[in-house]
Amino acid sequence: MPESTKPANRLTGERVNRLTDKPNLYVALAHYPVVDKRGDIITSAVTNLDLHDISRAVKTYGVKAFYVVTPLVDQQRLVQKIISHWTDGAGAVYNPARRSALELIKLKDTIAAVAEDINGIETVYPKTVVTCARRNTASTGYKEIREILKSGKPLLLVFGTAWGLADTFIAGADYILEPIMGPTDYNHLSVRSAASIILDRLLGTDK
Amino acid sequence: MPESTKPANRLTGERVNRLTDKPNLYVALAHYPVVDKRGDIITSAVTNLDLHDISRAVKTYGVKAFYVVTPLVDQQRLVQKIISHWTDGAGAVYNPARRSALELIKLKDTIAAVAEDINGIETVYPKTVVTCARRNTASTGYKEIREILKSGKPLLLVFGTAWGLADTFIAGADYILEPIMGPTDYNHLSVRSAASIILDRLLGTDK
């Protein structure tokens, strides 16, 4: 953006480039370890629109990378095919905005491999923040996570597909984010909706 | 919920039932009049996951009804088939939470027919709030719309599919909601993400 149109920092009067003031946040969408309807641990199938919707939300809120996590080779090939269509194929010409979002996707076998990748970038492992639709006594509020983001320390926000992340994985995370609540007791948002709302709660402006 | 577990109203000390304190808000998803990539007015096709994601968000935030608007008879049949599967068919047994969300869908030919339906319920026409990803000089902030919701007057929040609502329709609305912004200039969220975020901005709790 041209220098003159950059918003001024209210304290210092300096012009700041909003595009370079990115939060030190990474997002992962896990297809393992998640649970099915009965609570059994499964590997879920990749949903095409999860990739599109969450990559566009991630791009909107300035997240550094969007990791899609699946240990299944055929599912990894599917993800690669979807990304390629929109970043190298006909889709890139048809819809450049879609390309710039899907370019943020990185494919990994495990969440541990995601943490390694971030360590390679940041030279420190990220703290992990998990999301869960159920209330948890140890949960952390949005305000506290916003404060951590302001500190500049890297955070990895992990979303689960299917019926959510496995309890064993949740138990090992650094923070469990409070569930999203409206004025009802219904808490069955899609992972696409939940990821969008949580990014807005953490990073949205002009609310 | 049992009487004893109802939260107390801080001012009056009375126990309030959160489930009955629903906002006087209606949501419509328009497939006409919307524009395509070139800005030409079209009727868009219905996307299955729009119905699922937005009905679940609408249910979460206590919206009174979710109108799906399309003038195309074959598309209306498709919507009806999807709803029936989850409300009467195998899906209703498999996933009751999905049923209670999709039950909020009402199918209408036009946005005018939606306003008529609401007038029949409320005995007054709703004010219309439209959403637009582009900045508009006449736009209204989230705080102002929250104030209107508190007044109890009925509001109809209209989302456009494809490349968004037609300008002629936007010009006739009572309020144009400010676009959703994060810390970047990218503003290409899916309608599923945008609807979820806007409902959370207007009605979310514990943020």
Instruction: Decide which structural class fits the backbone of chain A.
Output: alpha/beta
What is the global morphology of chain A? globular
Helix content of chain A: 25-40%
- What fraction strand of chain A? 15-25%
Element pattern of chain A in H and E: EEEHEHHHEHEHEHEH
Gyration radius over CA of chain A: 18 Å
- For this structure, the quaternary state is homodimer
Low-pLDDT sequence parts of chain A: 1-20
The CA-CA distance between the termini of chain A, in Å, is 23 Å
Largest interface: A-B, 48 and 48 residues
The helix tally of chain A amounts to: 8
Q: Return the average pLDDT of chain A rounded to an integer.
A: 89
Tally of DSSP β-strands of chain A? 8
Widest sheet of chain A: strand order?
5-4-1-7-6-8
Q: Report the sheet with the most strands of chain A, covering strand number, pairing sense and barrel closure.
A: 6 strands, parallel
Describe this structure in words.
The structure is a homodimer of 207-residue chains. Chain A is α/β, with parallel strands linked by helices. Helices cover 39% and strands 16% of the residues of chain A. The first copy, chain A, is built from eight helices and eight strands, in the order E-E-E-H-E-H-H-H-E-H-E-H-E-H-E-H. Chain A has helices spanning 48-60, 73-87, 90-94, 96-102, 111-122, 142-151, 167-171, 191-203; strands at residues 25-30, 34-35, 41-42, 65-69, 105-108, 127-131, 155-160, 175-177. In chain A, the strands form two sheets. A six-stranded parallel sheet of chain A has the order 5-4-1-7-6-8, sandwiched between helices. In chain A, a hairpin with a 5-residue loop joins strand 2 (34-35) and strand 3 (41-42). The radius of gyration of chain A is 18 Å and the shape is globular. The two termini of chain A are 23 Å apart.
